[in-house]
């Protein structure tokens, strides 16, 4: 028996004999731990009784560890690890604990409202009516509107596979609009779409304006106006979107290989530096560069397929491709031909 110097005065002994908390270690060894692991187990032994299997009782009411045989106090100020609520479960197995949900940082107030369950009345509907009346009387209109808007934000973000961080930023922007009473007279749907669009730009998660517009039934012009108004009122610095930001997602959706994505990014940067595609939108540049590179590497992808994936019309893709084709001898230099052996200007079809 090895006695711990720090605890010997309190009658607490530390043993390395394969015992855990006064009980055989095999009760705590379902996975058959090694002998080294068992030696690290610590037990408490009453210095008066000195039983091999001590009878130690945890009295949570007083916070003491007491020997059940002689009553000697072995420790004090122990922590009660049990549930901190009382359960009055009925025969159906419900657990009406008084612990509520976590606080929502996007809502105001203490959030300690009382909720009345809809069921449990034998199907009479009385509990449902009580729940409805109670909700109308207690819920504030401002908070109710925020909850509905947050649900719409989450559903829109899920529709285009946006991460949770984008939804949180969009909620924060919407809450700021509501608290400051901005954009009065604007439709709620356009405000939500604008908040998601700005959140995507702030978090560097590129989504085109058409993708956000497709989630709503609001005219594109209205959403654009709300976005500009929000940027002015909230003084948000929204960075621009480049064609390289969209390239990886478009190539992934088209199931293209990595060399296509890499070369399309190189062609896009060179074309913009040369001014070949001046005035073209990043989406159009990305779509045309993907079409150009798939032809260059002899792995052609139809312009119709690219149009469906990127949301750019076939006419725009072909017109932009024509500009790239006219500068193909400059864009596809010897370094590109050396790095990509499959690349050849002869593979490019006439526009």
Automatic annotation (TrEMBL):
Keywords: Metal-binding, Repeat, Transcription, Transcription regulation, Zinc, Zinc-finger. GO terms for biological process: RNA polymerase II preinitiation complex assembly. SMART domains: CYCLIN. CDD domains: CYCLIN_TFIIB_rpt1. InterPro entries: Cyclin-like_dom (IPR013763), Cyclin-like_sf (IPR036915), TFIIB (IPR000812), TFIIB_CS (IPR023486), TFIIB_cyclin (IPR013150), Znf_TFIIB (IPR013137). The keyword Glycosyltransferase does not apply. GO terms for molecular function: RNA polymerase II general transcription initiation factor activity; TBP-class protein binding; zinc ion binding. The keyword tRNA processing does not apply. GO terms for cellular component: nucleus; transcription preinitiation complex. Pfam families: TFIIB, Zn_Ribbon_TF. Residues 42-75 form the TFIIB-type domain. It comes from the Eukaryota. Belongs to the TFIIB family. Associates with TFIID-IIA (DA complex) to form TFIID-IIA-IIB (DAB-complex) which is then recognized by polymerase II. General factor that plays a major role in the activation of eukaryotic genes transcribed by RNA polymerase II. This is Transcription initiation factor IIB.
